[in-house]
Amino acid sequence: MITAQVSDKGQITIPSAIRKKLGLKAKSQVEIEVRDNVAVLRPIKSILELSGILHEYAKGKPTDWETIITETERIVAEQVVREGLE
Description:
Blueprint: H1 16-22, E1 29-35, E2 38-44, H2 65-83
Antiparallel strand pairs: 1-2
């Protein structure tokens, strides 16, 4: 288990091992949800990060187009709501 300390300003630094595992870089956005007194941190993908979304599927992996379309629509909708692009 990796631990982090809360600063006087209520901030924490996400340890590098966690940032790497989640693909977080400077200016990345995350969603934080509290479930049963546990904070769950989830990376938020930007529309710009979707530019290569099909790249992995082009490497010979099985293609489930319904999953690709559904996931793409979900990510784009979240970005639109978050940035007020409606």
